């Protein structure tokens, strides 16, 4: 039986514990939060009567000797928590972002390598079926070679708490999901970005809650992003609205269940437009893992038991984080920024 502890018992911890309780051979033996009463309440909610309760990871490491640490803390605590867990010989599954800077992220990757332990990020939205099926369609060449991806993300959540006080809140806390999905769909890494941030009049966020960015990617692919967390009315889904353009057609996804695809034949002599025909998304392949939080958790636990390295392991996820920090640097400087991993 593998022993796991969870650190950070805010609202997001529910999804983690719901997923963890479905994994055979995994026992959550401790919970910690700076407010120990919140950890105690979460333990009671999930029937973890025997779990140790603490106000710090240090206390849990000493009393429970876990194999695994689930890090669900705020981003500013990430580096200290993950570094401490790795030093204690634990595998770590962490909330995103994996660091508050690329330097922090690189340091944690190096620490995980030195410790011979896994440091994996719960980039759960790439495990959504719609994202997976579109990535499969692109990989199968349904619309030819991808030339560009275009994405709209417009919502208006009132989180309260730390998010409404964060700098670069949209880019750092949410856009990484969208950037990660774009990287998966395109099958290409980022190379450069130009970005503009702003905070609309009437915003309930202290800092910039809206952004627009143009990413250059490998093979000449371009990815454009328009987003806001301060956009009431006609909101998109949390997965955004997408248009993917390839050399043989176009795919539209509304972020819910609506997908439209048209493939095109090259225009013949005298034709103004090419002939197009509707196409269907291909089925998922057995390797196309889904399940959101549960999918990531299943892959992580399997890897700790000798299975394949998860696709959201730190050394891969840093490519998505680099898109975030590249966009932030561009927004701060007003310049196009090269992205180096």
Task: Indicate the topology.
Layout: E1 2-7, H1 13-20, E2 26-32, H2 36-45, E3 52-54, H3 57-64, E4 68-71, H4 78-87, E5 91-94, H5 102-115, E6 119-121, H6 129-139, E7 146-154, H7 169-186, E8 190-198, E9 210-217, E10 222-228, E11 241-246, E12 249-253, E13 259-264, E14 276-278, H8 293-304, H9 314-333, E15 337-338
Parallel strand pairs: 1-2, 1-4, 2-3, 4-5, 5-6, 7-10
Antiparallel strand pairs: 7-11, 8-9, 8-15, 9-10, 11-12, 12-13, 13-14
Helix pairs in contact: 4-5, 5-9, 6-7, 7-9
Q: What is the overall shape?
A: globular
Biggest sheet, open or closed, and with what strands and sense? 9 strands, mixed
- The helix content is 25-40%
Strand content: 15-25%
State the order of secondary-structure elements, H for helix, E for strand: EHEHEHEHEHEHEHEEEEEEEHHE
Helix tally equals: 9
Integer average pLDDT: 94
Would you identify the CATH architecture of the largest domain?
A: 2-Layer Sandwich
At the fourth CATH level, what is the homologous superfamily of the largest domain? Dihydrodipicolinate Reductase, domain 2
Instruction: Briefly note the CATH topology name of the largest domain.
Output: Dihydrodipicolinate Reductase, domain 2
Q: Determine and state the CATH class of the largest domain.
A: Alpha Beta
Overall structural class, as computed from helix and strand content, comes to alpha/beta
Radius of gyration: 21 Å
Low-confidence stretches: none
Number of domains: 2
Query: How many beta-strand segments?
Result: 15
Report how far apart the termini are. Answer: 37 Å
The strand line-up of the biggest sheet is: 14-13-12-11-7-10-9-8-15
Protein name: Putative dehydrogenase
GO molecular function: nucleotide binding
Domain GFO/IDH/MocA-like oxidoreductase: 131-251
Organism: Kaistia hirudinis
């Amino acid at each position: 039986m593998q022993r796991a502890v969870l650190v950070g018992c805010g609202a997001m911890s529910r999804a983690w514990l719901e997923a963890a309780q479905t994994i055979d051979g995994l026992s959550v033996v401790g919970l910690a939060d700076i407010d120990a009463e919140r950890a105690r309440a979460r333990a009671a909610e999930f029937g973890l009567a025997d779990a140790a309760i603490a106000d710090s990871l240090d206390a849990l490491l000493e009393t429970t000797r876990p194999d695994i640490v689930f890090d669900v803390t705020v981003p500013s605590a990430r580096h200290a928590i993950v570094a401490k867990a790795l030093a204690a010989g634990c595998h770590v599954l962490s909330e995103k972002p994996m660091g508050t800077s690329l330097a922090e992220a690189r340091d944690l990757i190096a620490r995980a390598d030195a410790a011979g332990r896994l440091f994996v990020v719960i980039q759960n939205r790439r495990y959504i079926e719609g994202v997976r099926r579109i990535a499969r369609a692109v990989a199968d060449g349904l619309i030819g070679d991808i030339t560009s991806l275009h994405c709209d993300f417009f919502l208006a959540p009132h989180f309260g708490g730390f998010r409404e006080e964060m700098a670069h809140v949209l880019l750092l806390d949410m856009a990484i999901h969208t950037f990660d999905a774009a990287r998966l769909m395109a099958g290409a890494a980022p190379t450069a970005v130009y970005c503009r941030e702003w905070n609309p009049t009437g915003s309930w966020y202290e800092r910039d809650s809206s952004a627009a960015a143009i990413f250059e990617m490998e093979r000449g692919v371009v990815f454009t992003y328009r987003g806001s967390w301060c956009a009431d009315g006609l909101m998109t889904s949390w997965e955004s609205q997408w248009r993917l353009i390839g050399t043989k057609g176009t795919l539209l996804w509304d972020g819910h269940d609506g997908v439209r695809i048209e493939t095109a034949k090259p225009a013949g002599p005298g034709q103004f437009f090419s002939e197009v025909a509707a196409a269907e998304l291909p089925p998922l392949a057995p390797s196309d893992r889904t399940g959101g939080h549960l999918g990531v958790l299943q892959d992580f636990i399997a890897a700790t038991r000798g299975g394949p390295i998860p696709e959201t392991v730190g050394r891969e996820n840093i490519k998505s984080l680099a898109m975030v920090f590249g966009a932030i640097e561009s927004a701060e400087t007003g310049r196009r920024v090269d992205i180096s991993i």
